[in-house]
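Hello,

Following up on my earlier ticket. Below are the two sequence lines again, exactly as submitted.
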Amino acid sequence: MTEARYDRAPGDRPSREMQASAPAPLFVYTTGLFLAVLLTATSFWAANTSLLWPGGVALGLAVLAIAQMGVHLVFFLHVTTGPESTNNVLALAFGVLIVFVVVAGSMWIMADMNQNMMMPSAESINLHMQH
Amino acid sequence: MNISVAIDSAPQDALPSASEAGPAPKRIVVAYGFWIFLLSDIVMFSALFASYAVLVHATAGGPTGAQLFNQVTVAIETACLLVSSYTCGLMSLAINSRRYLRTYFGALITFALGAAFLTLEIREFASMIAIGATPERSAFLSAFFTLVGCHGLHVTLGLIWLAVMMVQVAVMGFDATVQRRLLCFSLFWHALDIVWVGLFTVVYLMGVSP
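Thanks for your patience. The regenerated structure is below:
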């Protein structure tokens, strides 16, 4: 029993010893490319079509982009749920949390400030003058 | 007393955990450190994305995204970067099996596609600046050039890195050090493609969709 349970280096594929049934590497990359092309093509189609309800296009594009990022992580960077890549996944999860806080927080705060710092319109100034 | 009992009763057939087996191999430590760097790089990009999203309507009477962006160019750029990510993966397979010719070939295609992406992006920037859509024109354009330009700068650095790595492969062969550096390069290149997915969606597609 000399082999230790080391973590897997990010970007390394699961070795054949760890997982005898691992699919062929070329197949993994090609599947990833196929899925990514499919998602990209759908994104470009959704942005240009008039068949969809315009209000939902932005949300759909965001979902497609997140799905494609997942495809890249799984098929190109070989992120798995296995115990040997727990550290990689935890670091990734923390990064995603920070990204979410920065983007969503900034947009929320700035939208709120835009609303509250709006220049008073001409009518409301006149109303104040009359008092 | 209780502690020794606990150790004695531990299952004997379990593999020693990483902490019991001593420090991890250098390949794992280096790649993990680079993984942390990439995540911090993505956090930096998230700040640029956030400022772009806040400033996207602050055009100051200047041109908007819908007037400036050419979807065909963006589609070609996206295809270049996606396929170069794929060939980078094929290159790392060739590196793991220590095949020189396939490694050089994969690196050549990856470099060519990356360079094509960069050329298209520079031409896009040049055409925008030629019609007066400079970074000084509006807050929207400042944020646009910062975000997209920062990604382009990363691609430039990646191309230089790839060229340097091929020289190292030619001079030093598939040394353990060279293999670690190549692993870090492939992580970097795939991460750039992930950033580009967010970029073309937020900047180009949401910018022109009705």
